[in-house]
Amino acid sequence: MIHIVFQEADIEALEKSFELDETLKADIIQIKDDYAVGPLQNIFTQQGIEDRKQWWREVLAGSDLDGSVDNGHVNDEQTVLEIKEKLDNNPEEFIWIWAAQNKHDVSGYYWLMSQLKDYQGRIFILYLNNLPFLSEKGNLFYPANLFEIPAKEFVKAKKLAREITPSEFEVDPDEWIKICEQNKGVRLLEGGKKLVQEDYDFYDTELKKLVTGDWQKASKIIHTHITKAKQTTGDMYLLWRLKTMIAMDMFDVQGTVGKMKEFEVKNRAKVLTTNEES
Q1: Cα three-residue angle 56-57-63, rounded to 5 degrees
Q2: What pLDDT is recorded for position 275?
Q3: DSSP per position, 196-229
């Protein structure tokens, strides 16, 4: 068995369950890119892959992750090749794809399963779609992320594992192709496995509301967005959008516009006209 997850925090959460149920114990592989944002056109071609890398280079420029696109840390294409190699070398091997009900996991699911059609019957999905779990305090809740689930609940969750059906292997890759061809920048989960798309500036409206007449560090604005906005995304994407708006002279800025803790922004100071001054 090989577990596949889409967020780094999921790895530790899943590993804790191994201590409670040894039948779950297996290698965990993470798909690291966030396919809920950025370009997807021709995503399974070298040109499409390079276009996406170039976009990430621009998004991460000047941030704490500047240069990370080319350091080999994220190489999902190679990861898929290694998964296929494991399946080819061991006919008894099979995959468990873990996905919670969030746009990040579901986008990753579509991207991944679209490349595994040759392994029908050996690819399973555990999709936590509107399913209740118990928190550490014993309260009922609906997790939006896999890492929110206590270890003991993973033991229960394994009962959700089901084979990805032949019809899903026909329909879901076609759905992913349609999404890729729309060439939008933001994907949102509408319900079930249904993704809808918006333009790159989708999160700008809520970001702008958080900028006030007082100086605030970019890190504070972004943190507030992540914790309070109904729809949000990763901090690097939000930082890029904030920088984009600064480049459009929408805000006043002080400090070096790069890492989110190194500069502050506020609404532009109002310039008084001659009549207003008098």
Answers
A1: 100
A2: 55
A3: EEE-TTTTHHHHHHH--SS-EEHHHHHHHHHHH-
Please, which residues have CB within 8 angstroms of residue 234's CB and are 6 or more apart in sequence?
34, 37
Measured distance CA(195)–CA(52) in Å, rounded: 19
What is the pTM for the complete model shown? 0.92
Measured between alpha carbons, how far is 54 from 108 in angstroms, rounded to an integer? 19
Domains and CATH numbers, the chain: 2-179 (3.40.1360.10), 204-269 (1.10.10)
Residue 217, both tokens = 């560090």
Q: What would the two tokens of residue 226 be?
A: 């992540």
**pLDDT at residue 60, rounded to an integer:** 95
From 227, 229, 239, select the one nearest 64 (Cα to Cα).
Answer: 239
Q: How many CA atoms lie within 13 A of 178 on its CB side?
A: 9
Whether residue 52 has pLDDT greater than 50:
yes
